[in-house]
Specification:
The protein has 271 residues and is an alpha/beta fold. The protein has one domain: Glycerol-3-phosphate (1)-acyltransferase, CATH 3.40.1130. The chain is 47% helix and 12% strand. It has nine helices and seven strands, in the order αααββαβαβαβαβαβα. It has a seven-stranded mixed sheet with strand order 1-7-6-2-5-3-4, sandwiched between helices. α5 links the parallel β3 and β4. α2 packs antiparallel against α3 and α7 crosses α9. The longest helix is centred in the N-terminal third of the chain and has 33 residues.
Length: 271
């Protein structure tokens, strides 16, 4: 009987912890109007907000070598497109789990909106990003000002240069942010991870911090430009110390991915 009572209590707890169902999709008319207004706003303000970033970079370069002030401005800039957007928003959970760092942050990748959701966390990090993003006017230029780390996917010299740069940045106290799937998931499920982030964390003996994003794929699915505004969740999980796995990046990779998949299932009420 005690076991049965415990099972009932666990079921109630799980039900209470389960997330609400995703918000219903907005009407086609609403999403069309919203997208028609949203994209011009984003493009126009990207051009306008680049110039304060350039001013911050010039003014703080002599004393802010890690460009923390510029990154804070960039986080506000990028995060406000989702956190402040009408009918949308970002809920961040788990910041209290973090200390000083440095860390290697890793997250699932569902949508272009993920970048905005991550900026809304106001975490301190350098992006590791495909080099094509650095060519984008204003946004890409700001990435270069911030000292984010470019990568040409599938090109070994670029990969090796990226790894060396990551080692150097961590030694200087920077945290890194990586999407280990390498590209957006077409169905919102967590896909195979590349091992680079885990190799870097293990070699530098710094914790991996997993984040699970939920809801961004409903806001802006892959291969779509129609926005369905709704609130999204960013859940920061406990840091994972590579020492727990004897600094074996393969074991670290497997453990972190398993924890993220489990957390995603929990958020979706599938566990």
């Amino acid at each position: 009987m005690a076991s049965s009572g415990a099972s009932v209590e666990e079921a109630r707890t799980a039900k209470a912890a389960a997330p609400k169902h995703p918000e219903p999709r907005r009407s086609a008319a609403l999403t069309s109007i919203y997208s028609t207004l949203y994209w011009p706003y984003l493009l126009t303000t990207c051009a306008l907000l680049f110039f304060p970033a350039l001013g911050i970079f010039i003014a703080t370069a002599p004393f802010d070598r890690r460009r923390k002030l510029l990154h804070r401005y960039t986080s506000w800039w990028g995060g406000h497109y989702l956190a402040w957007a009408p009918l949308a928003g970002v809920r961040v959970e788990g910041r209290e789990r973090l200390g000083e760092g440095p860390y290697v942050f890793v997250s699932n990748h569902q949508s272009m909106v993920d970048i905005l959701a991550v900026f809304a966390t106001r975490l301190d990090f350098l992006w590791v990003s495909k080099i094509e993003n650095f060519y984008a006017p204003f946004l890409g230029w700001n990435m270069a000002l911030n000292g984010y780390i470019p990568l040409k996917r599938g090109y070994l010299p670029s990969i090796m240069r990226m790894v060396r740069t990551c080692h150097k940045k961590i030694s200087q106290g920077h945290s890194l942010f990586v999407f280990p799937e390498g590209t957006r998931s077409p169905d919102g499920e967590i896909k195979k991870f590349y091992r680079g982030a885990f190799l870097i964390a293990a070699r530098n003996k710094v914790p991996i911090v997993p984040l699970v994003l939920e809801g961004t794929n409903h806001v802006l699915p892959k291969h779509s430009y129609r926005i369905n505004p709704q609130k999204v969740l960013v859940r920061i999980l406990d840091p994972v110390d590579p020492a727990e796995f004897d600094f074996d990046h393969r074991k670290l990779h497997d453990a972190v991915r398993d924890r993220m998949v489990t957390e995603q299932q929990r958020l979706r009420g599938q566990e």
